[in-house]
Amino acid sequence: MTSSFSSLLLAEPLARAVAEMGYESMTPIQAQAIPVVLTGKDVMGAAQTGTGKTAAFSLPLLQRLMRHENSSASPARHPVRALVLLPTRELADQVAQQIALYAKHTKLRSTVVFGGMDMKPQTLELKKGVEVLVATPGRLLDHIEAKNVVLNQVEYVVLDEADRMLDIGFLPDLQRILSHLPKARTTLLFSATFSPEIKRLAGSYLQDPVTIEVARPNETASTVEQRFYSANDDDKRRAICTVLKDRGIRQAFIFSNSKLGCARLTRALERDGYRAAALHGDKSQDERLKALEAFKQGEVDLLVCTDVAARGLDIKDVPAVFNYDVPFNAEDYVHRIGRTGRAGASGLAVTMVSSSDTRLVADIEKLIKKKINVEAIELPDARRYRERDPRRDVAGREEVQRSASMPSTRPMRGARPVRSAPADPFFDKPYEASDAHTPSWDAAGSTGPKAVTPGLKTKRKVAALFKPAGSY
């Protein structure tokens, strides 16, 4: 079977778009899936992430739909012909962008709908009529119930990342959506694994599918170097920074198991001097898309994510992935590290393992069928490790030297002195009293120390404590 796009005999508008994107040779999943989809057969495909699945189903679908592109401009003549369902907002947006690029020289219309965004602009696009609709299940059901979209002329349905959709509880939504589709259709199911649940789903909704597997189930990419380091929770961030420095890594994904942990880690990395951004479920859709775009443009060094971003993010040339936390599900490990080593490039996957992660590591070992060696990692002395920008230390020393050269003043009798804190160039504001480790009663206000009216014994103790040498 050929591996050249030129031999597919795609329609000229599609072939031109593929050439403009710089594609020449097909990946294994593309070489096997595209000819089958062009025949109209159902497909059950398994491939590791980053193998070009989007083109594998998009190009043949667009090729077969081009017979509809000369229809009337009336929305009624532009019903949804192909439906692509995906588990996350980010993945839906990404796939929609790819399809739009492939179809840009055709008259076929496409759009995307997902949650977290206003429904009104999406409704306007749907009312204009589209041949290709990319959607997440929940938001699509919202539009179906609002009668914004009709699916009775769908010819193709794609269930991408089907295992992930089942993992996060979309099976009831999928069943409701599929009940709105014609039974005479082509169904394409793509999954990273062929679990029993996936096989049951395929048995219910696919008709005599052609099975395509381009890699053993749950196989990790051979181009990814996998390292596991022993580190307790207090040392994990220091270990990650050490690897980043030693390997000269400029960009990476870092995965955390919780939204709170993700947010805290992002702030800590920013204090370390890195340009970091968080990507998790509490972020608005606009914030998430902006963070992804900033990372793609190189404006962000470290993208700290929960597993909401572990699937389907196709960002080229990301050299490394760090698992700050070992994932709770072994399959998520495969998907996380699939963010690097894409399209034949080399990559590094580093997982921080604490003493409580033994069972989780064993699950990963069983899934990928490889022996995992948890190594020790040499870290810099914690006392020398700076949690914040080291420029602060220089400024701090300069401030101390300036203070030492100034004449000292005797504190007010009966009052506690206020200790000045060095300027903080990282935050461009002085330390708070708590940062300088001074007692709370030192911070008495902006105009001077707080006056007190102590008793006689207290006055004597204060006087003895602050009495300058030779002053009495």
Report the span from N to C terminus: 99 Å
- CATH H level, superfamily name of the largest domain: P-loop containing nucleotide triphosphate hydrolases
Structural category is: alpha/beta
Top CATH class of the largest domain: Alpha Beta
Shape call: globular
Q: How many separate structural domains?
A: 3
Strand order of the largest sheet: 3-4-2-5-6-1-7
**CATH topology value of the largest domain:** Rossmann fold
Q: Could you explain how this protein is built, in words?
A:
With 472 residues, this protein is of the alpha/beta class. It folds into three domains: 5-213, 3-Layer(aba) Sandwich (Rossmann fold), CATH 3.40.50.300; 224-375, Rossmann fold, CATH 3.40.50; 391-466, no CATH class. 36% of the residues lie in helices and 14% in strands. The chain contains 16 helices and 16 strands. It has helices at 12-20, 28-38, 53-65, 89-102, 119-128, 137-145, 162-167, 171-178, 196-205, 236-247, 259-271, 285-296, 330-337, 358-368, 391-405, 456-466, and strands at 43-46, 82-85, 110-113, 132-135, 156-159, 186-191, 210-213, 224-230, 252-255, 276-279, 302-305, 320-323, 347-353, 374-375, 423-424, 429-430. The strands form three sheets. The chain has a seven-stranded parallel β-sheet with strand order 3-4-2-5-6-1-7, with helices on both faces. Strand 12, helix 13 (330-337) and strand 13 form a beta-alpha-beta unit. Helix 3 crosses helix 4 and helix 13 (330-337) packs across helix 14. The longest helix is centred in the last third of the chain and has 15 residues, at 391-405. The protein starts with 11 loop residues before the first helix and ends in a 6-residue tail after the last helix. Residues 386-452 have low confidence and may be disordered. Residues 3-31 form the DEAD-box RNA helicase Q domain. One of its GO terms (molecular function) is ATP binding. Residues 387-458 are annotated as: Disordered.
